[in-house]
Amino acid sequence: MAKLNWNPWAGMDEVKDELGRIISQASGRPVKRVSESGYLWTPAADVLETPVAIVIRVELAGVEREDVVVEARGQSVWVFGERRFDKDPHGGVYQALERSYGPFARRFALCEDADRQGIGATFAGGLLEIVIPKMRPKAAKRRIPIE
Fold first, then answer.
1. What is the pTM of this model?
2. 67: which strand partners?
3. pLDDT tens digit string along 23-33?
4. What does R_g of the chain's alpha carbons equal in angstroms?
5. What domain range is 19 assigned to?
6. HSE, side-chain direction, 13 A CA sphere, residue 14
7. Average pLDDT of the chain?
8. What is the phi/psi pair of residue 13, to 5°?
9. What contacts 24+ positions apart, CB below 8 Å, involve 28-35?
10. How many CA atoms lie within 13 A of 31 on its CB side?
11. What is the pLDDT of residues 11-23, one digit of tens each?
12. Same domain, yes or no: 59 and 121
């Protein structure tokens, strides 16, 4: 059974978005919500722990490989990038625009036994996969030969 972590603040983004929509309608001008860090959106991610590694899969559909950066900083792995907005070449008018565009960032804390030098990343089909190998644990017990 999957472990789900409930966050009591998870619905706050929807409240902010709804408030921005109401203000936009009342003022007649669009309100662009920008997080404190300057990033416009946060991509969805899955984190899987195996006996030998931590695997992070970040959903980046519509983002080009050259627009993504993965960095190990201190005790964290950061994913930065940008999903570029391309205007319709046929001159159409969007009736709905639900995907997020612009710069994004995501931070993942490293576990204590993470091998920072062995981190690797692949990008295919709009999915970024970061593999963080674990260092081999020291044996909890060791038999000492008697001479």
1. 0.67
2. none
3. 666 656 554 54
4. 21
5. 11-37
6. 4
7. 81
8. -65, -40
9. none
10. 15
11. 666 666 666 677 6
12. yes
